[in-house]
Amino acid sequence: MKNCIYVLIALIGLIACKSDPNKKSSEEAQTVPIDEQTLRKIDVHAHYRHARGYLPTLFNNWNMKAVLVDVAREDSTGVVRSWTPYLDLAQAQPDLFYLCSSLIGVGIDDPDFARKNIERLSQEIDAGAKMVKVWKNFGMVTKDASGNFIQIDDTRLQPIWDFLKDKGIPVMAHIAEPLQAWRPLDPTSPHYGYYKNNPQYHAYKIPEIPSYETIIAARDRWIENNPDLEILCAHIGSMSHDVDLVAERLDKFPNMQVELAARFGDLAKQDSEKVRRFFEKYQDRILFGSDYGNSEPADEMTPKELENEQKDLNASYERLWKYLSSSDSLELRGQQTVGLELPMDVLQKVYFQNTANFLSLQ
């Protein structure tokens, strides 16, 4: 089935031929590549920690910019972040990158916890951060002094949400994991490889981690308690296995949006027509994200490794475009599916306009 974009091109070409016999035929006009290179895009969830010589050309070819999303983690040395390299990269290439700061609950028992984090976030917002990310540390990893897992609706965090509301800064929330994290490893799951290689997040084998339902309920209470805070639920709100669950929340919480990063495999497991209807109904509240990035400095890689990395990255963006824009058969995270063939106006919102609106970009 021809993509609707090409059908439109054909109609334009046919009209042109009637007015000028020297113009290309409609059959020839169908080959004009109005595709991924002409639609503006923002990848709202990216992790390009290190500069790459090929990235400006690749992003320009895709007509795309990206948000560098910081993640705050705790290890034996303390809190580890990517903010500094992201800031350096965004300042060096402001035409390609936007910034997202982060928040973690480490030290929440300190009476000055909120004040200290507000001061830091204020500085990073002044430096260009358009958004603040909270991660699955909330609910699954970080504990307070009493040994309780810190949930995202903890009242000790409220001064920070109030500050972000006043500043007009939205929050990206990666709260919980896919439901598969609380289930036995399933080789047919799109998350099999991740939990096999990252057992620390395979909650099924870590009984002390609160249940999926407990963490999602805390997330929902947090959204409900902060109706004036704009919230982007990362990874389709950790409900990517069932778009009906996502729809329920979008209907209930007008301040909630979702982004798609690293959950295309879950969409591919569901009926394509059902998923397509979901996109069309919530076309103003779905944002494109990939979770793509890099972790090694270029000078520690061989030219061949960099070449392969570039090819793989381009192919990955191409695969996601194919899923969203065409009706072709394809495989995503081991799942066989057919593309959604979304209309051009929906693609334009998902790939660009919704993120531009959400982050108040010019």
TrEMBL record:
InterPro entries: ACMSD, Amidohydro-rel, Metal_Hydrolase. Signal peptide: none annotated. One of its GO terms (molecular function) is hydrolase activity. Pfam families: Amidohydro_2. GO terms for cellular component: cytoplasm. Residues 104-313 form the Amidohydrolase-related domain. Keywords: Lyase. GO terms for biological process: secondary metabolic process. PANTHER family: 2-AMINO-3-CARBOXYLMUCONATE-6-SEMIALDEHYDE DECARBOXYLASE, ISO-OROTATE DECARBOXYLASE (EUROFUNG). This is Amidohydrolase family protein.
